[in-house]
């Protein structure tokens, strides 16, 4: 039986991935494939933890996490949008850069405790509420506002958007920064609200799962929410099973959330394709844009 | 006004008597690295006129209209719109000043709806419900039916163009630029477009109409400004000049007319029967396509893109294989063979998609020549490439087909579209095929080079090869082919003799009205 506590745990486990995947969905809707989510998350995790520790305020931590995530994502943005580097290679490099950078600067924070998170309405902290609120908000902005329409247009066909006078690189840079900030918040949630301390590489592949969720969710915020909750649910379940002492190796159980999420999402997206709805991928996703002036 | 007679010295209006001049450009110049796209271009457009901008590919037409629409900034020169200086910094400013543009390659977003696409082309779009109502109003007023909720990807080429036009009209443009609007339309769809344009002109909108289709311009345009190599050659009344005279002004020399003489149909070379492709997830599947073609004969296959042309050339080249007996060359069944055995047997193909199916952009011209010529030209010995022979073959193609390139070591992707097209066609023709299938042989090629390619195809047929030309350019098909067939929704009409065929009859065939009309034509 699923009680309120279980649901709470589920939402908490899902929140970092929800933030990161929503941000990546925005970036990809603008046509940018940023594989550096893991690197942006871990940067946000360290920066957030350091700020929260220094000020004693978790809020300051989240703000710092967002700022750090956005800042590091802009490295990717300038490289890919203005210097036209390959997006896949640059994204992978960003992840490795983030992991290495935080491993170095994170040394002083190992073994330090985070300030405690204040509770929120219904015993759910406000970071979770924020993540939930961002789902309909993202949907609304993307599908019902002019800015969202321009962003989707740029992602769908950047040549056409340019021909109509939209600033393709600027739109994408903004989308990349939003994606970075949200990945940073997701990372900060891991260090400030979940683990309550800093450990090297603590995001543990959450960025990669977020990337997969975006694709299989068909770039829709609601699909992203479903994917994140699925991951959170299996994560809670395997923790329960571990606690109950089930005779399954711990490694297999720890693997379960990643595996289950991918399998379910693959099935969903395969069924959509089978029904002839085709791929929902933005038409210009991952393609470099170079305007001829 | 300009009278006939002195056709090359007939210059632009100098302002006298033209009180309703809407747009004027003076001394516009734009230089790109290595090419002067516009050189001191001056011309004017009056309100309510359909003004043609005529020129070969690379003559500077697109650069000129991009400057008017604010996509590029000219290096020098000035423009006026309605008496006010016009120097748009971006398309938003141009639209605000009253300039609308319909692009050659549609600037539409496939995954978005008609309403969303139109909203993206407006600077202050109304709310959704209001927008849908205004789209409906404009659609009704100009006879351009549109459903605002449909996604672009489900629309035909003609409907897509309607979306672009309605998008422009909602901005109430004073000057509407149309960049080669009929290149994707059937003759009937083009007639509807011209009716709309005449209606707009009657209401005082000036229309700047880019095209290289001379008959179209002679029928529908009030004046034509002719560009050659970035310069204005003259502004004329196109009705006072023959198509040949206009072409001569565009090219700067008398056009070489293709010579169809000296060909005799021989024995049947290629037999295609019952060609049916599996239903594809995207694209059109072929339905029981069949034809026979004799040595020395050219069969023209017309049709609007997307009606199975890609699938047909893939089935003939061997990219997709078929059931036994569907593709037979000189009595040998090649149906189950891939491209290489078919080449060995003498069935060659030059696809349209030059950088997708015909050439590897990153590889040099020599290497690209090896890709299809290895066997027939003996460019390899026991699997080892004979580089000297390959380079010689590439150099022969470059020389014989006037490919403008520094040399055979140049990457294919560095060539302009027209030059690469010449290379691809030349590569196949020089291999002396028994049967050659080409798709859009002169697409994107300027008029002079197009004539050379057509002549090379005719010469090939004259040497006894069977040639299948798939094209959307009906004039080209009428000029080249002995027999004509229309491809519509994956079905091929029965081929009919080209002689005596009118554009109207062809239009009906393209629209899918086979059977009766075809029988009528054949009779």
UniProtKB/TrEMBL annotation, chain A:
Cellular location(s): Cell membrane
PANTHER family: ABC TRANSPORTER PERMEASE PROTEIN, SUGAR ABC TRANSPORTER INTEGRAL MEMBRANE PROTEIN-RELATED
Alphabetical list of Pfam families matching this protein: BPD_transp_2
Transmembrane domains' residue ranges: 33-52, 59-82, 88-106, 126-142, 173-196, 208-231, 243-268
Superkingdom of origin organism: Bacteria
GO molecular function terms listed in the Swiss-Prot or TrEMBL record: transmembrane transporter activity
Organism: Paracoccus solventivorans
Presence of keyword Cell membrane: yes
Name of the protein in question: Nucleoside ABC transporter membrane protein
Keywords noted in UniProt: Cell membrane, Membrane, Transmembrane, Transmembrane helix
Any one annotated GO CC term: plasma membrane
Membrane topology of the entry: Multi-pass membrane protein
From TrEMBL, chain B:
Ranges for domain ABC transporter: 23-254, 270-514
SMART domains per record: AAA
Subcellular location: Cell membrane
Membrane topology: Peripheral membrane protein
Pfam families assigned to the protein according to its UniProt record, in alphabetical order: ABC_tran (PF00005)
Keyword set, alphabetical order: ATP-binding, Cell membrane, Membrane, Nucleotide-binding, Repeat, Sugar transport, Translocase, Transport
SUPFAM superfamilies for the chain: P-loop containing nucleoside triphosphate hydrolases (SSF52540)
Any single Gene Ontology cellular-component annotation: plasma membrane
Gene Ontology molecular-function annotations: ATP binding; ATP hydrolysis activity
Protein name: Nucleoside ABC transporter ATP-binding protein
């Amino acid at each position: 039986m699923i009680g309120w506590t279980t649901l709470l745990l589920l939402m908490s486990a899902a929140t970092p991935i929800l933030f990161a995947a929503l941000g990546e969905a925005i970036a990809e809707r603008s046509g940018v494939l940023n594989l550096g989510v893991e690197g942006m998350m871990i940067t946000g995790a360290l920066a957030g933890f350091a700020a929260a520790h220094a000020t004693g305020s978790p809020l300051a931590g989240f703000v710092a996490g967002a700022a750090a995530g956005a800042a590091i994502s802009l490295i990717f943005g300038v490289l890919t949008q203005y210097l036209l580097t390959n997006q896949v290679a640059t994204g992978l490099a960003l992840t490795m850069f983030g992991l290495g950078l935080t491993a170095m600067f994170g040394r002083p924070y190992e073994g330090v405790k985070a300030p405690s998170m204040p509770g929120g309405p219904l015993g759910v902290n406000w970071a979770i509420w924020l993540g939930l609120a961002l789902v309909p908000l993202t949907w609304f902005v993307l599908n019902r506002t002019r800015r969202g329409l321009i962003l989707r247009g740029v992602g769908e066909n950047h040549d056409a958007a340019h021909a109509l006078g939209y600033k393709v690189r600027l739109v994408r840079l903004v989308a990349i920064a939003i994606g970075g900030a949200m990945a940073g918040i997701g990372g900060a949630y891991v260090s400030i609200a979940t683990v309550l301390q800093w450990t090297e590489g603590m995001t543990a592949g959450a960025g990669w799962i977020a990337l997969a969720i975006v694709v299989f969710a068909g770039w829709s915020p609601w699909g992203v929410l479903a994917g994140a909750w699925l991951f959170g649910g299996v994560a809670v379940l395997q923790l329960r099973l571990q606690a109950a002492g089930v005779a399954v190796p711990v490694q297999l159980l720890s693997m379960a959330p990643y595996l289950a999420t991918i399998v379910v999402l693959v099935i969903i997206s395969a069924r959509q394709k089978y029904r002839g709805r085709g791929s929902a991928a933005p038409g210009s996703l991952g393609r470099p844009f170079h305007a001829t002036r | 006004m300009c009278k006939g007679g002195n056709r090359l010295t007939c210059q632009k209006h100098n302002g006298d008597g033209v009180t309703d001049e809407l747009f004027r450009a003076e001394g516009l110049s734009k230089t790109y690295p290595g090419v002067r796209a516009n050189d001191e271009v001056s011309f004017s457009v009056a309100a309510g006129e359909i003004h043609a901008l005529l020129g070969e590919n690379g003559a500077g037409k697109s650069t000129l209209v991009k400057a008017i629409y604010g996509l590029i900034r000219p290096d020098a020169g000035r423009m006026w719109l309605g008496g006010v200086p016009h120097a748009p910094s971006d398309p938003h400013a141009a639209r605000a000043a009253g300039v609308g543009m319909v692009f050659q390659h549609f600037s539409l977003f496939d995954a978005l709806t008609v309403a969303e696409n139109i909203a993206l082309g407006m600077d202050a779009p109304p709310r959704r419900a209001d927008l849908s109502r205004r789209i409906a109003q404009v659609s009704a007023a100009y006879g351009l039916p549109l459903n605002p909720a449909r996604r672009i990807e489900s629309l035909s080429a003609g409907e897509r163009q309607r979306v672009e036009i309605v998008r422009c009209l909602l901005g109430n443009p004073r000057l509407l630029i149309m960049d080669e609007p009929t290149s994707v339309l059937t003759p009937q769809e083009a007639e509807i477009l011209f009716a709309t344009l005449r209606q707009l002109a009657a209401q005082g909108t000036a229309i700047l109409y880019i095209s290289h289709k001379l008959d179209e311009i002679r029928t529908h345009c009030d004046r034509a400004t002719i560009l050659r190599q970035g310069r204005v050659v003259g502004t004329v009344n196109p009705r006072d000049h023959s198509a040949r005279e206009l072409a001569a002004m565009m090219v700067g020399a008398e056009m070489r007319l293709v010579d169809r003489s000296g060909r005799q149909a021989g024995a049947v070379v290629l037999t295609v029967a019952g060609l049916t492709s599996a239903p594809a997830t995207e694209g059109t599947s072929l339905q029981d396509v069949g034809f026979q073609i004799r040595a020395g004969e050219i069969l023209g296959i017309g049709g609007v893109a997307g009606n199975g042309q890609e699938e047909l050339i893939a089935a003939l080249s061997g990219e997709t294989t078929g059931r036994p007996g569907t593709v037979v060359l000189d009595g040998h069944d090649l149906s189950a063979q891939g491209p290489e055995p078919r080449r060995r047997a003498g069935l060659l193909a030059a696809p349209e998609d030059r950088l997708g199916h015909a050439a590897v952009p990153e590889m040099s011209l020599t290497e690209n020549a090896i890709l299809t010529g290895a066997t027939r030209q003996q460019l390899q010995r026991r699997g080892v490439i004979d580089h000297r022979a390959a380079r010689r073959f590439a150099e022969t193609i470059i020389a014989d087909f006037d490919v403008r390139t520094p040399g055979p070591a140049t990457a294919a992707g560095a060539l302009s579209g027209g030059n690469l097209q010449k290379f691809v066609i030349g590569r196949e023709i020089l291999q002396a095929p028994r049967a050659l299938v080409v798709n859009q042989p002169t697409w994107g090629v300027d008029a002079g080079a197009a004539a050379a390619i057509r002549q090379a195809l005719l010469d090939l047929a004259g040497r006894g090869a069977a040639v299948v030309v798939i094209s959307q350019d009906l004039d080209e098909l009428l000029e080249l082919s002995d027999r004509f067939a229309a491809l519509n929704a994956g079905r091929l009409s029965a081929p009919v003799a080209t002689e005596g065929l009118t554009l109207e009859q062809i239009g009906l065939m393209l629209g899918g009205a086979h059977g009766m009309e075809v029988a009528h034509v054949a009779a």
